[in-house]
Records
---
Amino acid sequence: MKHRTLIVLPLIALVSGIGAISCSSKKSDRPTVSIPKVSPRQSTAQWLKTSAKITWLRRQVSGRYDGASAWDNIQATSAGIRAKRSYYGNAPGGSVTLDARMLTAMKILAREGYSFRVTSVAGGSHSRTSRHYAGIAFDVDMINGRKVGYGNPYWRQFLRRCRQLGATETLGPGDKGHSTHIHAAWPR
Ligand SMILES: [Zn+2]
């Protein structure tokens, strides 16, 4: 033990000496190297954006290009910035942070083998109090290459999985306004 202490102490002195040298070099105009921090939300969004399993609609379902499409939303989240909301109909405008629980659920669904097309996240005009505006809901109109509808065998189990993954509001064919798409939303 005594020997180790004897070796370690000069090492500490050496390391702190180096530290002092590098600190003093800060006085020069050398540029500071900063390592960008990527949040778990951001890295999940990056994964989702590049996943071959997921397609992101690049316009609103209504046909508008307003910078708040599903694609725009996942792009922004991947870049670490807030997702834009639409500013027409019932949509309130502004922006919101997409919910990490929802993004994680999307990732799990894709990893479990589902392929799907996301038509709306925070953008688009929905009902006045829609959870979409809070960044906690997403819509899907295609699952495993087939349109969502009564004839699609996948949407029920897709929504069931969403509920298992924390969604507390799930709508689809049979619910008003959802004959061609499904909606999954997480708690506020
Ligand atoms: Zn919806």
Note: The chain has one domain: 40-185.
---
Amino acid sequence: MRATVLHGIEDLKVEDWPEVELGSGEVRVRIAAGGICGSDLHYFRHYRMGNYPVLEPFVPGHEISGRIAEVGPGVSGLSEGDPVAINPSRPCGACDFCLNGRELLCTDMKFLGSSRRTPHVQGGFAETFVTEARQCVPVPGDLPLSVAAFAEPLSVALHAVNRAGPILGARVLVSGAGPIGCLVGMAARLSGAARVTIADVVDQTLERARLAGLDDVVNVSKGDGALVDASQSSGGFDVAFEASGAPTAVLSAIRTLKPGGTLVQVGTFVDPMVPVPTDLIMTKELRLLGSFRFDREFDWAVDYLSSGRIDVTPLLSHSFDIGDATEAFQIAGDRTQAMKVQITFS
Ligand SMILES: [Zn+2]
Ligand SMILES: [Zn+2]
């Protein structure tokens, strides 16, 4: 079977990849769609993730969906042909965090398509993929598998909103109108936010955010003056989600939050050492929270997608066959064209 294998910076090859035997509790999934995430792009451009270089041929991809192709021994509840979304988190189930309902902080997490461990946990941009049955969440037969592949990024967004706490009636700022930022805005609306303002530096991506139903879009490429004005007319934002990874966005959020407001850090920075105005954090009594991946929100994401309560279709901008995977990654890196780019495998 074929997989997209990263061998170096911008060196992605579609090549034969060994089929592995199914172990107990495992299933083989024929992959249908895989969304390219910011972290996949980071691997493509830098051949590393933060402090974790890629040390061996590496298959990226963790936003994947498909159909069960083969069921291993000891698996119940899944049969050949079932459509599924694959949860890329594989926590150990035995550490203190796992035992206390905080699996995402697992000290022995295996997350698909990640170089944090060696040997690396290979990802799912491949024609078939073997995973534990517990990671496969069935989806309705009439749900397009391209939509099911949004379960992972949507669960990141749901987790970020969950971290903020109740936001019924809140005025919300989202910095960064990429797929995660847009999904955070949509999840905030679902959770009862009164108004969601989304800021970015690219008009095309803001236009998609508008199509996705977000209330106000602000281009901050020439500074955050318009954002400060918008926040002042309403007394400031109650909650800000930083999903751009731009240091200036952290500053804007801290400036435009109401006293007592909450900042949730979702985005990843290329250089994570970001100076912040600590005086404002102190005198406004802001809450600063981190949000990393997701826990049980994955199942909720599948439910919201299946019921249509969240419509992600305006965010799917491109779809490429596996044979054009390099082009898919190149387009995904061009924010004037792309929102969510997917690779299709069958
Ligand atoms: Zn992702
Ligand atoms: Zn654990």
Note: The chain has a mean pLDDT of 96.
